[in-house]
Amino acid sequence: MSTDIRQLFCQLEAWVSQHMIGQQSLINRMMIALLAEGHLLVEGAPGLAKTRAINTLSQGIDGTFQRIQFTPDLLPGDLTGTEIYRQQDGSFHFERGPLFHNIILADEINRAPAKVQSALLEAMAEHQITVGSNSYPLGELFLVMATQNPLEQEGTYPLPEAQLDRFLLHVMVDYPSADDELRILRLTRQEAAAQRSDTAPPHRIGINNILQARQAVLALPVSEQLEQYMVQLVVATRHHNDGEVAAALQYGASPRATIALDRCARAHAWLAGRDYVSPEDIHAIAHDVLRHRLILNYEAEARGERTDDVISDIISRTPLP
Fold it and tell me: Helix or strand or coil: residue 21?
């Protein structure tokens, strides 16, 4: 059964790759977030197909998709929904907002004020929405992909660290290669001319299939030595560790980072067709798991260090089991 479900996910990943040229890492991270029951923050310049990525993925899933454009004038009720007064019988009726969908694209999330961000935070963390004195549960499948543009900072509201930590992964999207860009050019020309007949995915994955796949991922064995290794990677980021790496950081990662390393490494191994987790799986996802959970101090920033450099240093200094 697990093999059959894994084949469905591999077919979906391959189909998305046909429509998302040059962004294989982003596609893989979306699949991992889906399997690890987490959310992802995607950062990159405009025009790199961030919106197209999650939209294409949603077409292969038997669930609902909603795109929300975040703007400074957005209100929490625009996400959660509001109580509407019915004049006929004098009662109130809750009109559900766009968060009551399975897959959410929060486009340019850092353009919305803190009130709106906190409403999204509750949905991400608790899988529920509270309006007034009532709480409404969300569906078993609830995935948020938030995007932000690193080029424009005017009129934006930086995400608070508490909300950043709620994201399972922070993915950086870069420009495609020249060869991939040529393929993108030809693909968009074909789509504009409506010459493609294979726009539909071969199979739509049902929500029950996703829940079964999550259980299969959780069942993957992880050795005690690898568990210790993941803990040591995270502990190396904290101040009570007197190493050179921790000296570059103002704040390290919380235990949520260790949990995320474990879940994502399992999902990475499962997608690769293996029934065990290896150190390579941990290394493959370590930067995306830790990138948004570490805060450099002023001295490190003045030296021009980057968070990714610190993570690479941590990996190189932590001995393999």
Answer: coil
pLDDT by residue (tens digit) across 53-104?
Answer: 999 999 999 999 999 999 889 999 999 988 888 888 878 888 899 999 999 9
Considering the domain architecture, whether residues 12 and 152 belong to the same structural domain is answered as yes
Report which of 255, 269, 285, 284 is spatially closest to residue 217, judged by C-alpha positions. Answer: 269
Range of the domain at 294: 221-317
At 33, list the tokens: 């977030």
Torsion-angle region of 259 (φ positive above 0: left; ψ -120 to 50: alpha; else: beta): alpha
Distance CA 127, CA 123 (A): 5
Q: What CATH number does residue 244 fall under?
A: 1.10.8.80
CA 201 → CA 15, 61, 91, 308, distances in Å? 6, 9, 44, 35
Length, in residues, of the chain: 321
The answer to the question of residue 198 being in a domain is no
Indicate the SS3 state at residue 317.
helix
Q: pTM of this prediction? A: 0.91
* Tens digits of residue pLDDT in 91-150: 888 889 999 999 999 999 888 888 888 888 889 988 998 887 788 899 899 999 999 887
